[in-house]
Amino acid sequence: MCKEGRVEEASVLFGKMEEDGLVPSAVTYNILIDGHCNKGDLGRAFGYREEMLRKGIMPTVSTYNLLIHELFMECRVAEADDMVKEMGEKGMSPDAVTYNILINGYCRSGNAKKAFNLHDEMLTKGIQPTRVTYTSLIYVLSKRNRMKEADDLFVKIKHRGVLPDVIMFNALIDGHCANGNMERALLLLKEMDRMKVPPDEVTYNTLMQGHCREGKVEEARGLLDEMKRRGIKPDHISYNTLISGYSRRGDMKDAFRVRDEMLRIGFNPTLLTYNALIQGDLECVTTHIASKNASANTLRYLSSAFGLKWKHPWPLKEKRQWAHLWDTVVPGLALTLLGLWHTINTIRAYYLSGSGNFMSRFWYPLKSPLSKLEHLELIFVLSFSVFAIFMQVLDFPLLHFSFKLDNFEHATMFFHLAIFAGFALSAELTHSSEILSGVCRILLASVFGQQLFLLHYHSTDHVGLEGHYHWLLQLIVFVSLVAALSTASSPTSFPAALVLSISVLFQGCWFMNMGFVLWVPRFVPVGCIVQLGDASRDNMHGAVTCATPEADLRARALAHLQFSWILAGILIFIGCICLKFARNFRARGRASEYEELHISGAEISVAMTGFKQVHP
């Protein structure tokens, strides 16, 4: 009954069984727990586990396996860990099934390190990993774009005598397709034939999506024909992939031919089918009309006449590209300007006050005849922060309310910056800056602390080259945090104040560098491509994917060189500024000494004259 989905009937029968005086065993309870887990009713499943304990029936390893598996399915990882601990407390040792459930659960949640630790634990305890174990590990490596490790593990598996199945091959093929390495993916298809592992529709759909992602729709069409020749029936995904590929390329005639083919073989087009057709057709129409210099009102009118939603003839993928470019370049420019302002003023203040009287500032006033411009820095920071928050919420330039977590994370960083700027501006306007200077310094440090915190957890979703750039960014932010805390505890420290200013400048330059390298195709390293519109897979983001491990290593080496070059350029600039101020203030110092000597000489002359008058 439970296997047929008739769980409620099975529960009723279980009740009658108890009424008749029959004592259920652990196996009976496991069947009911399994049925409710498959139904998604974890509460009832745990209820039966509690009933077992009340009746003195000891849950088995299978009982825990069923519950742990369902907890992972509902992403309740912490509770799954608690269940494993409970097993140990009751003297139960996890079996191969338990380890496979745990490894698969951690792989699905993206925790590759924990999954591989469990794999090592299996070997230590003498439990041999199975094909299911290795499939899960290859899956997480592929999703993390760690394709060299996935390939190496695949070779080890075969040497250990474990025969790969179609699911394992599909996981590996998906990783290579997502990384733009179609040559390796197609070689795996040939290897499946050599090993007598028949591919399925998932295999071909993955390869078709990889070709369409690169704009090679004809190759994808060839794979569809190959599927049919091999007796593999295409599904909705197969046809929708082709339709989407043709639509993105603007070949609407071929897209509609595929739609007609779907209808002929008995497939009803889905919502995804029509979305691809409408998007592609409307983009072709609006682009053609826009090329004739038609006004936006004309485009809106024609679109409404055909019952379609008008949008600017700016492809969605390019909008997303510019959205990501905005997220990095514009804040980077603001931080660069702010860092330059602080660096120059910090050095200037040091030479003006001297090493013994220097006092760092968390903002610098603008020397202007207009008193309203004195607080321009704080007004700029506050205004930009509020503006950036709205742009994140509206997902600029897409201009719609965004409910994506990464947008909220970015907005939160700007929100903390706005809190600091607003408080500092209020303290200045109320003439309380001296009393509240310590609070302002702590708030400034908290800005960098919050930025580092969010970047650290935000960057766990970024993989590949993008993840590496985010990791380098965290190093710079960490330096900013340490320097901010140092200036808060020791405001007279010139080195701490200068390092803080330089780190803000470095942040700005690195943000802009990231934007151009990761989101402008012409600046992408050789052997890598930008995944416009496809930068998100299973909540893991990789803007740039490299075709081979060698290309990935070259791209990371280039990132290290850029990091060093930018830092070197900033330090050279700082050195020139320091030398310029030193020369200017040395010249002023000599002039002051001359004036003092001149005045002193005049005073001596006057004194001597007076002396002569008194003593003729």
From TrEMBL:
PPR repeats lie at residues 1-24, 25-59, 60-94, 95-129, 130-164, 165-199, 200-234, 235-269. It holds the Pfam family PPR. It is found in: Membrane. Keywords: Membrane, Repeat, Transmembrane, Transmembrane helix. GO terms for cellular component: membrane. The keyword Transmembrane applies. Its main location: membrane. The chain crosses the membrane at residues 322-341, 376-394, 414-431, 438-457, 469-486, 498-520, 563-582. It is a multi-pass membrane protein. The keyword Transmembrane applies. Coiled coil: none annotated. InterPro entries: DUF716, PPR_rpt, TPR-like_helical_dom_sf. Belongs to the TMEM45 family. Belongs to the PPR family. P subfamily. This is Uncharacterized protein. It comes from Nyssa sinensis.
